[in-house]
Amino acid sequence: MADIIHIVGGAGEGETELASLEYLPMTDSWNIYSGTLTQPAEQIGLATVEAFLFAVGGKVSGVPSNQNQSYQVLYTVAIPLVR
User: Fold this and answer.
1) How far apart are alpha carbons 41 and 57 in whole angstroms?
2) Which of 28, 32, 55, 80 has its CA 20 to 30 A from that of 17?
3) Which of 21, 24, 23, 22 lies closest to 10 in space, CA to CA?
4) Which residues of 47-73 are buried (b: 16+ CB within 10 A; e: fewer)?
C-alpha cells in the first residue's frame, strides 16, 4: 500500500505481543507504526482494498478477539504549478 510494507501484530519471546512496523523502501528504514491496532494482537487476518487496510480477528493476550478494524491510507501528492 502506497509503497510501504506493513507488519501488523505478532508475538515474540514469551508470547509478548509486538508493535506494528512499517518499512519505507525509499529511505530503507523501519518505523513503529502507531496508526494500527488499538491493542497489540497476534494471528490477525489482514486485507487491503483500495486505500484501506483491514485487520480482522486474531488474539489479544492469548484470547480470541472479535474486534475488526480498518485504516485508511492518506497520500501526499505534489502537483507542480505551471505558469
Assistant:
1) 9
2) 28
3) 21
4) eeeeeebebeebbbeeeebeeeeebee
64, amino acid identity: P
Question: Are residues 73 and 2 in contact, defined by beta-carbon separation less than 8 angstroms?
Answer: yes
This prediction has a pTM of 0.61
C-alpha cell at 3: 509503497
Say if residue 20 is exposed, middle or buried (CB neighbours under 10 Å; 0-12, 13-18, 19+). buried
Separation CA 21–CA 36 (nearest Å): 9
Sketch the domain layout of the chain as residue ranges.
5-72
Cell of residue 64, nine digits: 480470541
CA distance 20 to 14: 18
